[in-house]
Amino acid sequence: MSYSLDFGWLEGAAGAIARGAAMTIFLIVITTIAGTVISVLAAAGRRNGPPWLKRTITVYVEVIRNTPFLVQLFFIFFGLPSLGIRLDPIVAAILAMTLNMAAYTTEIVGAGLDAVPRGQREAAFALGLRPRQVFVKIVLPQALKVIFPALTSQIVIMMLESSVVSQIAVSELTYEADMLQARTFRPFETYFVVAMIYLGLSIILRRVLVGVGRRTLSAGVS
Amino acid sequence: MIEFTFWDILRNLIFATRWTVLLSIAAFVGGGVVGIAILFLRISKAKWARRFASGYIALFQGTPLLMQLFLMFFGLPMLGFRIEPWTAAVLGLTFFASAYLAEIWRSGVDALPRGQWDAGASLGLHYIQELRLIILPQAFAITRAPVVGFLVQLIKATALTSIIGFEELLRTSNAINNATFEPFTVYGLVALIFFVLCYPLTQYARSLEARAAAR
After folding, report:
1. Tell me, what's the pLDDT at B1?
2. Which helix (H) or strand (E) holds B92?
3. Measuring CA to CA, which residue among A172, A196, A179 is closest to residue A21?
4. What GO cellular component term, any one, is given (chain B) (predicted)?
């Protein structure tokens, strides 16, 4: 055994790693916003919509939750062009990530909506609020507060899973690592450093989300 | 040039599915064994053991599985092991599964009332007997639903091993796609096969959950 670790390449690689990390952060920020909005709509639709809509949402949720993200990504990026829908890698990645996350968070948001006591809704109606106001001002904030920890975990999981979009050549953190190791011939060290950056990102992301949750929802999460 | 009919594609994909199934089983069993070891450390009385186990779990839950697989694939040869995609895939998924399973079971152990331990001690059982006869059977029983749920996650995670070159369902489908240029059909079928594997388990986990809630 004469292998010795070498991190000498790290200095020249900092720029590429930072660019990759920035792309990863960009992807997860867009996905979080779009995914949360879609899942609130889907969860509400699944509870109050017409039967065909309820069924469609259920099928969507089950299909996404029971197939691998990587297959969904390949289907969107390689499969959709045969229907004439050709997407840029970044757009395909964001679309796949958003659809994937929204399926999981639809269930989470739904559980939150169910957890709000009926009396809250009845009281709001009694005060003369319109249905939409009741949902947006009374029910939704309480639901989000309940589910905030679960939502946070799901966003962190999605950030970690975003590493596979490197497979369709989106230049995020893992893609930059692939390029670096091809240049430095130091795959172990390269992936080790990048794995530690992911670990740091997931810790920071969790902290930031908890902070945002405390401030906006006064959600008591640790 | 070989012509691929729809049935050729489907047959080849179903044939490749056995590797996905085999890998899932191997990783689930391996992950269970290592997971129990991690669980022992996680609930141990020694502080260093608990620290180590928490760190281990945080490490595997805080980094992408793809990175873990790459580190296995490129790291083990440095230690002098000859490594093939199959070995890297099984080991990578085993460690990944062990962290999640240990954490799920730990939540089960934590959920048991303190009195269970006390009752065991008052019967004169020593620590290992207490765990084996009283604590673990109950902890496993109440965490069955999340364990099945994790199995679904693990089956889906096997798709990532295609990236390190293991010939499972997805990698085979990439090859078929390169020969047929029918990505819509090929990846659609792959999604369907994964769905057929996972959906019954998802439903099973749901029924376990409902049963646990009713009790």
Report:
1. 55
2. helix B85-111
3. A172
4. ATP-binding cassette (ABC) transporter complex
Per DSSP, the residues of A93-149 read HHHHHHHHHHHHHHHHHHHHHHHS-HHHHHHHHHTT--HHHIIIIIIHHHHHHHHHH
Residue A193's domain spans which residues? 14-217
| DSSP conformation class of B82 | -
In the chain, the amino acid numbered A56 is: T
Query: Out of A62, A79, A187, whose CB is closest to B70?
Result: A187
Contacts of B199 in chain A (CB under 8 A): 62, 66
Domains, in order of start, for chain B: 6-214 (1.10.3720.10)
Q: Could you tell me the CATH number of the domain that includes residue A163?
A: 1.10.3720.10
Report residue A217 as tokens. Answer: 């929802």
Report the first-to-last Cα separation within chain A, whole angstroms: 45
Sequence letter at residue B50: R
pTM of the full structure: 0.91
Q: Residue B76's closest chain A neighbor by CA? A: A188
Q: Could you tell me if A166 and A172 are in contact, meaning their C-beta atoms sit under 8 angstroms apart?
A: yes
Furthest-apart CA pair in chain A: how many Å? 77
Predicted complex ipTM exceeds 0.90: yes
Phi-psi region of B138 (alpha: psi -120 to 50; beta: other; left: phi over 0): alpha
Q: What would the mean pLDDT of A55-66 be, rounded to a whole number?
A: 97
Burial of A217 by CB count in 10 Å (0-12 exposed, 13-18 middle, 19+ buried)?
Answer: middle
Report the distance separating Cα B138 and Cα B132, nearest Å: 10
Measure A48 CA to nearest chain B CA, in Å: 23
pLDDT tens, residue by residue, B54-111: 999 999 999 999 999 999 999 888 887 878 899 999 999 999 999 999 999 999 999 9
Total domains, chain A: 1
